[in-house]
Amino acid sequence: MAKLTFLGSCREIGRSGFYLDEADEGILVDYGVKFQNRPAFPPPVPLDDLQAIAVTHAHLDHSGALPIPLTRSEASLFCTPATRDLTSVLLQDMYKISDGRLPFTRGDIARIRRQSQTTTYEETIPIGRRFEMTFFNAGHIPGSAMVSIRYNGKRILFTGDFNSSESRLNPGARKNLPKHDVVVTESTYARRVNPSRQTTEEELVQSVLETLERKGTVLIPAFAVGRSQEIMCILESYDILSKYPIYIDGMARKVNDILMKHPEYIGSPQAFARAVERTILIHDNRDRRDAASKRGIIISPAGMLKGGASHLYFKMLHDDPDNSIVLVSFQVPGTPGAELLATGKVAVGNKTYEVEADVRMHHLSSHSDSAGLLSLLENIPGDPEFYVVHGESESCDALAEQLDERGMTAHVPSTGEIVEV
Ligand SMILES: [Zn+2]
Fold first, then answer.
1. Residue 353 shares a structural domain with residue 371
2. CB-hemisphere CA count at 13 Å for 246?
3. Which of 84, 140, 304, 421 has an alpha carbon 20 to 30 Å from 408's alpha carbon atom?
4. What total number of domains does the chain contain?
């Protein structure tokens, strides 16, 4: 029997980490951080037996602690080329904003690149004497993968974050997965039902066009990895970018460069390339003032108005009813974005602003909703046993219950729990 240790991501989002070991060989899958007041890391892994590390995708809640085991072992890091490049950029940014208060150095972050062995979807790689590993497209962000590990004639799947439906950016998670005995699944939106992608896209485009036609400026605060590029692809597909200027601020510029090098991970690479070509890059505050006056579209981090350049744009644009602030992701309670949606007022820095601009919300989820989760999971052959993680406590329970009602066996593990698989 192999042992599976849940290092984190149990009844919470963040700090994803799983350790699968048998006898004297082990594989670590994901090793992320959780951002509270300061970054929280998962517990250490036994390094002597570590054969390999696999990372499902670049988001820091899955990758943010990777330099720790990479520095202390010779283990190779298995990931897609897009994940390697995006993870390096995100970790460097995390280093920059944390003033060096991290358990690793800038040099340690370089190990992501040095120790990585990139892999493509569907390719099977032998690991040590006991394991084989295959990545499948997870459809969550470019380069994201589900990690399937074969051991002892059995197969375990770590879904990472996944989206079973197609978007403009991602072709959607691999359908018809092979037989598995154990599945460790995310449950982020197990309690949500998303409207169809097309409806959300059309509503977003409507909000953007209404603003532009009345000669306002559209501010879209968005995450740099995935969401910003998805919006670029949508606006390009609806032919808005040939008529109005689009400005990109923050790390999304670097992310665009990376994704242009890896078009194989993009659903419609031509639309993305056209959008990138039309994009005007922002370099400094003068560019920002200029962009705010040009009656176009500005995409800027952070996604929930939590900081970054979005604050500067917000201050320039909030008091004109012709402008709009278009939120495109779930706004976590307690963030400025959530406050703005609920009250029309928001504290930015040490001042509270009454907002005259039109505030809209169009949630372009990169996770499956409850129907999407179930449709992918219940179609995995082999009658697997499920372990539900990476969701708020209620979401983990909800998905486990739904799987249970369909006659499948599902558990909600606790952090630190070890099970035999
Ligand atoms: Zn993610």
1. no
2. 26
3. 140
4. 2
